[in-house]
Design a protein that fits this description.
- The protein is about 40% helix and about 10% strand.
- It is globular, with a radius of gyration of 22 Å.
- With about 375 residues, it is an alpha+beta fold.
- A hairpin with a 5-residue loop joins strand 3 and strand 4.
- Helix 4 crosses helix 5, helix 9 runs antiparallel to helix 10 and helix 10 packs across helix 11.
- The protein has three domains: about 55 residues, Molybdopterin biosynthesis moea protein, domain 2; about 70 residues, no CATH class; about 220 residues, Hypothetical protein af1432 (Orthogonal Bundle).
Amino acid sequence: MTLVKRRYVRTRSLQQDMVIDQAIVDRAGRILIARNTAMDEYLISSLVKMGIPGVYIREGEEDEEPADSGTPAVAPAIERAIEKSTVPDRTKVQLTESVKARVVEGIQYLYNDTDSPNFTNTTRTITDDLMKAISDNDAIAVDISALKISDEYTFKHSVDVATMSMIVAKKYGLNEREVYEIGISGLLHDVGKSKIPNEILNKAGKLTDEEFAMMKQHSLFGYGILKDKEDLSNPIKMGVLQHHEKINGRGYPMSVAGDKINLFARIISVSDIYDALVTERPYKKPFSPRDAVEMIMSMTEELDISVMRSFLESVILYPVGTDVELSTGEKARVIENNPKYVLRPKVMGLKTGKTYDLADISNASIVIL
């Protein structure tokens, strides 16, 4: 297998045909240069003009994946046993391709022109689409490994956070109007990043203290964009303002704690952290969904426990039908999920046909790798 290396190169040291290993986006979240693009003089000059100090480039090529996935052939008798024992997942929210296209177009419009007189109407149109996707089949769960609205990070992240927040709010017990409004707040939670300079948004390395201080202003910028829009409710605006606050008072921008943090913000915070963890960015590799969930579970001092519980009971980490590897070395297939134990579904061994209820204490030593 060919070894692929990722190397940081200062913009003025870039050479033609170097392959960029990150996407370059503008403040509206649009991709200006796609990942895996070969550099030329025009693109290098554009990076210099944008003030981007450096980027990651890729060296080497990945070999094609082998045809054999490593999943063992499953005997017909075991396939029948799996089929008989399978319990379908709770109804999941699904977005059609046409809805995704409308949502991406709408989000681009919002980030490009935050002063538009159609700003609120566009936001409501997008939220209408998301609400319809949830209500059409009475969705009560979200497959957190499958959310992908766009390759453009800002749009994907905004819609992922809005969708997860709506499902979590529904589980938490909020009424239909509140679920709708938290969708709006989730869509707009990062709109303040439209005011952050491109060179900070696209920086491949660690931000300086000054740059991080600027980045932390995005929730204030977002609130500034929304505060005079009388057709948006105060909880929507507070969700945008406070989504980086922490229960222990160590968040930003105001370092408020506990129930002084608006409920919308407490819900959006969990969805925001999860989606940020599992998404690759110029400066970090993505966490696996399982590792991200475990990290969320460890943040008991920072996140609202009741909201965290609603999040964990709303997400499907291993959809029924997924093949997984157990710590015993055995391959298995997920046959039933337990909302109370998102990390520990019921599985059936693909060779032995043995059922393991990973939520049962007798199987406590067995984990999914």
